[in-house]
């Protein structure tokens, strides 16, 4: 088959991408290759294969990228303490660059002339996907159905699905589902009654966190071990990045940690309300800041804090592969080799409390901070210090 007759579709096997698969077959004289990146979302491989084969797809690719996702995408972001608009831990944002990169690799391998995604025409994901597509495959065509087809709403999609015999999933109440995105780092839920910010989020939409009210009445303790700024183990046992996040998701989720209900400013200028669950990620950012507090100097820590807002915004907007993000990552990783040790956390009904910070670093001096009289800190210099800063008031 000629090179200009293949399209690689980012395919989940769900309602939206099944509709897109059929639509591509109807509107393009091309073979559709279905590509799924397994980054820790709830995935049914048999269902994906079955649904794709139902439409005659011959090439179905499912790639396990969980460890790469955590090690090369989540962990660098944790080192930057990236939080968008003070609350969003960027769970969807950080997943798209990896999916797009690997999708382009598949397109090149099979000489596809185009790639396609299921991101909506009002959302951020279309930007995130397509900026990454351009970075790795600038000559490969992008087909974005939501921007060009005549299906304008969820109702249109369901009508199209019924016409073509595409299975329509149901939520726990028996209605068409909320818009859900999930991966090993987080779960987001949007749409339906959540679109009106006056409505409270129903408890049944939460997938990986117990409500604080129903969390255990006994506290849970967990120790996160760090080396060179990254988590390397839990409770002293060294395990893979994927397993670290998976275990922390479980322990934090059962203790009611990691829920946020937010209204965010999308890149395209639209406000959007959603409910996000990031249990393990919440613990990691909390613990990472704690280990840095006893291993890094003030200047390095404050330099990181000063760029965090911009760093987070770049990730949110889809600029993971931009020169600016690479530049800021170098600032984020200044002296990361000094960030070593362990943080013990107490988890109880949605709350996180630091129990201990252990490190061999000498950044924190017991002698200098002690209230007992000592000779390591010259208090006579303090008056000179204050007088110097009095003058700076008028600069």
Describe the protein's topology.
Blueprint: E1 6-10, H1 15-27, E2 31-38, H2 45-54, E3 60-64, H3 66-79, H4 95-109, E4 114-116, H5 125-136, E5 141-143, H6 145-148, H7 154-163, E6 179-182, E7 187-190, E8 220-227, E9 230-234, E10 237-238, H8 241-254, E11 259-265, E12 271-277, H9 279-293, H10 298-317, H11 323-332, E13 341-348, E14 351-358, H12 366-369, H13 382-392
Parallel strand pairs: 1-2, 1-4, 2-3, 4-5
Antiparallel strand pairs: 6-7, 7-12, 8-9, 8-13, 9-10, 11-12, 13-14
Helix pairs in contact: 1-7, 3-8, 4-5, 8-9, 10-11
Textual characterization of the structure:
This protein is an alpha/beta fold. It folds into 2 domains: 3-75 and 94-177, 3-Layer(aba) Sandwich (Rossmann fold); 182-355, Alpha-Beta Complex (Argininosuccinate synthetase, chain A, domain 2). The chain contains 13 helices and 14 strands. It has helices spanning 15-27, 45-54, 66-79, 95-109, 125-136, 145-148, 154-163, 241-254, 279-293, 298-317, 323-332, 366-369, 382-392, and strands spanning 6-10, 31-38, 60-64, 114-116, 141-143, 179-182, 187-190, 220-227, 230-234, 237-238, 259-265, 271-277, 341-348, 351-358. It has a 5-stranded parallel beta sheet, sandwiched between helices. A hairpin with a 2-residue loop joins β9 (230-234) and β10 (237-238). The radius of gyration is 24 Å and the shape is elongated. The N and C termini lie far apart (72 Å).
């Amino acid at each position: 088959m000629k090179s200009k007759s293949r399209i690689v579709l980012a395919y989940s096997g769900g309602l939206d991408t099944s509709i897109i698969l059929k639509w591509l077959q109807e509107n393009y004289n091309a073979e559709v290759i279905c590509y799924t990146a397994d980054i820790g979302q709830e995935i049914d491989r048999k269902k994906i294969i079955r649904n794709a084969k139902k439409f005659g797809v011959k090439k179905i690719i499912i790639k396990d990228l969980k460890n790469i996702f955590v090690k090369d995408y989540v962990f660098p972001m944790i080192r930057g303490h990236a939080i968008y608009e003070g609350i969003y831990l960027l769970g969807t944002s950080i997943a798209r660059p990896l999916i797009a990169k690997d999708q382009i690799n598949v397109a090149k391998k099979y000489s596809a002339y185009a790639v396609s995604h299921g991101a909506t025409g009002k959302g951020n994901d279309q930007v995130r996907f397509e900026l990454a597509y351009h970075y790795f495959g600038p000559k490969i065509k992008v087909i974005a159905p939501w921007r060009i087809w005549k299906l304008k709403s969820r109702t249109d999609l369901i009508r199209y699905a019924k016409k073509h015999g595409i299975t329509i999933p149901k939520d726990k109440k028996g209605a068409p589902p909320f818009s859900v995105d999930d991966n090993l780092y987080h779960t987001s839920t949007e749409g339906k009654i959540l679109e009106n910010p006056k409505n409270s989020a129903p408890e049944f939409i939460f997938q990986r966190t117990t409500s604080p009210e129903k969390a255990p009445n006994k506290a849970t303790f967990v120790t996160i071990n760090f080396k060179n700024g990254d988590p390397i183990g839990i409770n002293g046992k060294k395990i893979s990045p994927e397993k670290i996040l998976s275990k922390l998701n479980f322990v934090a989720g059962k203790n009611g940690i990691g829920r946020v209900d937010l209204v965010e400013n999308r890149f395209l200028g639209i406000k959007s309300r959603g409910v996000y669950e990031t249990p393990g990620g919440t613990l990691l950012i909390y613990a990472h800041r704690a280990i840095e507090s006893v291993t890094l100097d003030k200047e390095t820590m404050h330099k990181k804090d000063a760029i965090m807002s911009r760093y987070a915004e770049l990730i949110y907007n889809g600029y993971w592969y931009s020169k600016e993000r690479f530049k800021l990552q170098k600032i984020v990783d200044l002296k990361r080799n000094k960030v070593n040790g362990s943080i013990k956390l107490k988890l109880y009904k949605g709350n996180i409390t630091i129990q201990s910070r252990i490190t061999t670093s000498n950044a924190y001096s017991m002698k200098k901070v002690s209230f007992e009289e000592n000779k390591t800190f010259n208090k006579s210099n303090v008056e000179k210090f204050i007088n110097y800063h009095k003058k700076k008031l008028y600069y």
